[in-house]
């Protein structure tokens, strides 16, 4: 087993050295060895990929679709994405020049942030939110401006946005994620219109991560790209809507001039996505609506079950209008120490939830529960949580 030469141990990327590994994964690993642990930690759909989608991947392999595809993705998949975005969100993009297929939404985020910021540029990130945004910004030398939205019902209001842009004139990029991981909160059309009115007056890019767009419960999802197409880089993918996390298919859509630049970073990083995955995703975006809707209805039933159960336990939470997470306020006797509560629940109650603090300012005093799990598993989790609370 080779051991790194001691004198080289601190000579890697200084910015990366200062960043800790994923706190969500770290906590998940920390509690995974607890006997009989029931984990509701990761955002991993528990459904199987629909047969029609799997068959498309199998056909691709059997037909020896094994050579390099175009870096931006196959024409068939980009046309399918174009049709999907038009059908679902009334967005119009040119398949050849305004869409890139990526290795999941994660690569889409990295390529976009790397392209749009220079070292020292500021990036506005509303929190609590997925920690990856801040980590990527720091990796590329950007300065995260974390905006705690807890006092505004966990959304970035137009007024707050205007205030932050005035305080930080060096902001180059604004990051949005809705429906939100971890809160499940999303934006209405009037709220997006108001935010867009503020952003139109500023020379800033808008990175909008809408990977949970097909899992919106109380109203149809609207993309901010509808209001701000000439500044917006839209990120989405197949992972959550079609339970295709392992296929690693994401997408970027935006103005052609910007897509051309993002493509360079995309090419230098991964060259091209995987052919069989792209074949599967082509079918998903063209013919996966019915299966996706069935999954959403299952998530909705689980959400409603959990909300009633938590009400009966006297635990408060944010009303999730999308995604598959519940952001739950921890019991008062723990004050805001969500790490202690999460560890106690894991060790004594054998249920693992993610501490809210890992999602940034505003997450303190909460835990995130992922209901991308079977009804049976959720019912068992509630029994264990109830027993834990009664004994603590």
From TrEMBL:
InterPro entries reported for this sequence: Aminotransferase_I/II_large (IPR004839), AspAT/PAT-like (IPR050596), NHTrfase_class1_PyrdxlP-BS (IPR004838), PyrdxlP-dep_Trfase (IPR015424), PyrdxlP-dep_Trfase_major (IPR015421), PyrdxlP-dep_Trfase_small (IPR015422)
Residues spanning the membrane: none
Co-factor requirement: pyridoxal 5'-phosphate
UniProt GO molecular function: transaminase activity
UniProt xrefs under Gene3D superfamilies: Aspartate Aminotransferase, domain 1 (3.90.1150.10), Type I PLP-dependent aspartate aminotransferase-like (Major domain) (3.40.640.10)
EC category name: transferase
Record flagged with keyword Transferase: yes
Keywords: Aminotransferase, Pyridoxal phosphate, Transferase
Family recorded in the similarity comment: Belongs to the class-I pyridoxal-phosphate-dependent aminotransferase family.
PANTHER family in UniProt: AMINOTRANSFERASE, ASPARTATE AMINOTRANSFERASE
UniProt-recorded name of the protein: Aminotransferase
